[in-house]
């Protein structure tokens, strides 16, 4: 953890991810991250969840065990929530991940997050508050709604060939 990663090195490596070999690596990584051990998913979702979320018994049972009957509070930082939503959105690039997120009831938590953040949307379009927080809130809302849209629809409803393993291969 003490070692810093040089950002320019990370960006230089990015084009390799778009190669066919890179696509297989991403798919394998997603399968590892979202395997039977729900630790990664719980790490992403717990800051987005809240003990006051109104989930049905069926929705609760779908969640990873550590999030069922969750007693924590939602992360207050808009920036942190945005990064977590973006990470979940990136996971949706692979079919395995989309299926796993649906299976684990992620939609219900995101729906509740959207409801909870509706109260903070009382700003004029284009209005930027301290530190660009209002702009970030609008960006979070857009990504969150896109993510919800992916999770509530299946591949055939999105005009995606069900045999396509990664949406990145469609680019």
Summarize the structure in words.
It comes from Oesophagostomum dentatum. Residues 87-158 form the Protein HGH1 C-terminal domain. With 171 residues, the protein is mainly α. It has one domain (7-114, 125-170). The protein is built from eight helices and no strands. The chain is globular and about 40 Å long. The two termini are 34 Å apart. The model is unreliable at 1-21 and 122-129 (pLDDT under 50).
Q: Helical region count?
A: 8
What is the general shape? globular
Report the β-strand fraction as a percent range.
Answer: under 5%
Elements, N to C (H/E):
HHHHHHHH
Low-confidence stretches: 1-21, 122-129
| CA-CA gap between termini | 34 Å
Query: What would the average pLDDT be, to the nearest integer?
Result: 75
The structural class is: mainly alpha
Biggest sheet: strands, sense, closure?
Answer: none
Domain unit count: 1
- Radius of gyration, in angstroms, nearest whole number: 17 Å
Helix content: 40-55%
User: How many strands in all?
Assistant: 0
InterPro entries: Hgh1 (IPR039717), Protein_HGH1_C (IPR007206)
Protein name: Protein HGH1 C-terminal domain-containing protein
Domain Protein HGH1 C-terminal: 87-158
Organism: Oesophagostomum dentatum
């Amino acid at each position: 953890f003490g070692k810093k990663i040089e950002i320019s090195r990370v960006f230089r490596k990015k084009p390799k991810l778009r190669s066919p070999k890179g696509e297989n690596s991403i798919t394998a990584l997603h399968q590892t991250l979202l395997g039977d051990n729900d630790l990664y998913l719980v790490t992403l979702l717990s800051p987005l969840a809240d003990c006051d979320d109104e989930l049905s018994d069926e929705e609760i049972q779908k969640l990873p065990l550590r999030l069922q009957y969750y007693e924590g509070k939602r992360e207050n930082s808009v920036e942190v929530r945005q990064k977590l939503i973006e990470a979940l959105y990136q996971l949706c690039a692979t079919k395995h991940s989309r299926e796993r997120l649906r299976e684990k009831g992620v939609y219900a938590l995101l729906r509740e997050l959207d409801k909870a953040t509706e109260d903070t949307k009382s700003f004029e379009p284009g209005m930027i508050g301290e530190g660009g927080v209002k702009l970030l809130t609008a960006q979070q809302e857009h990504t969150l709604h896109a993510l919800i849209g992916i999770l509530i629809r299946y591949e055939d409803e999105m005009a995606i060939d069900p045999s396509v393993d990664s949406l990145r291969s469609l680019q």
